[in-house]
Design goal:
Helices cover 50% and strands 1% of the residues. It has 549 residues and is mainly α. Pfam families: Fungal_trans_2.
Length: 549
Amino acid sequence: MDITDKKQSAMKLVFITQVASVKKSKETSTIIRKHVMRDIGKSRRKQRRYPQTSLESPESISRLGRQQLSVPRETPVLPWVESQEENGPLLAQPEPPHQHDPAKSTGAGSYPDSQHRQPPNGIFVPADVERPAIDRTWTGRSDPFVKFPVEMNDRIRELIDLAFDDRYINIGPFRDACLPVGMLDEAAFHQVLSNALLNIASRRPTGAQTETYDAMNHHALAINSINERIKDVKTATSDGFIGAVAGFMCYHAYTGNLAACQTHMKGVEELIRLRGGVETLDSNKPVRLLLGWSDVGGSAIEDSQPRFPLPQKLLPEIDSFQPCQAISNQIDDILTIWSYRFPSHVTMLILIGDLLRFNNHLKREMERTDGRILSNGDFATGYLFPLLHRTLSLAGDAIIAAPDDLNVLQACRIGCTLYLAEIRRLFGICGVITSLQTQKLQHYLRSSIANWKGLGLLKLWCLAMGGMEAVGDLKGWYAEEIKREASLMGWATPRQLEMQMEGMLWFPKAHGPAFWVLCRGQGHVAVAPGTNSLHSGKWDAKWKPALQL
């Protein structure tokens, strides 16, 4: 047997000249055997099965029968989806996502473990119906073609995935409102990422460190980037640069550093002055709204008037609220007495009316969306932001009235601000600090003891709003005042008072639990003998601060 040039031995076809009298060499036998067995081995291999995802639209899915949706048991379903029982619902419900701890992460490999990544066998679930959406699968959860303003590495990609993961409920406005700002500038990117990580850390159990290493690291990178470029006026007045400084205000509001927050606010004011006015930012909606949120958030902590006006062109009209079906008897009585007592203070009356419409609208949206409205950042930005701006605009010397009337009016204004505080937290907004407001409310209430004639229920509502937000001994003072005023008005149990409050400005999901923490969480409610319900308890004879919140 004779073999041609060695270069041809690597080809698929090798020409062999065979002479019957010549014995086969070992090398030639190996080549022949490999050539024959290649096709035989290929025919014996089983065809590999890959995960499948349906791209059916919800409309077409609804027309399919149960038999059409089922697939062989070995076909995987989407991650984090539990299979239902045979007689259960047609579509599976999502499980909570894997709780990823960035403190334990070491790089790109710190993804959920195998038991979370391996889906159970069960019913095939179309991608449009279940979360995560098709772009959130494990093949890659961020767009590889997006150009980020910073040099990316595995750790930054992991943090982006953690901070802006849309599978997590109630992530606040960071993904939809803040991330676009971060894409404008290097410093803005680092600061938006830092704030988002603070948002996640704040949701951990009490006692966990809010300022994690990653949050502080990216905040420091943002500060360095700003310091290197701040002398260039053109750069310093750009949208991304101003967005970064507004992000600094949010960061220090979250961490409680009010002095630093005020410093950055003054810096933003100067940059906007050099730019030509705040209206020049209206062309960039995300930056303008972030500036507004930062302004309102910082002003709320200080209970002062906001520095910048509302961006009316970027916000929905208040008329888009669903109308109230009916006004409660409690509100009707208060409005009647108010118009008689304070006929010249129509602005406050209109504000209370709009808050009532917002409260009613939010209740309906909660029912319509099954609570998903709380993860809608646009809703919070469009309605909470301007309402809080309006309540803060009446702070300081904005209300001119006689001293007796002024104390009542300011107490009601602060009560409206505190009413919005619990709802802001429901929407995932962090950095809601109300310690100064609860102290000021106490001062106004003490200074107006004899000035609430006909408005006793309104005074009780202000006490409840202050008590739910207060801490320590101040919380005890509010609880004692609530008990005393409620007893004078004939309500023997906290539940009776709560029923009256529900006819006022009251959002049950936010204020109901906080009210019972105030009344019973610190031993203020005595449970009736023979009952297990704390709602049936009467006011305790003495304040017992068993738990400091």
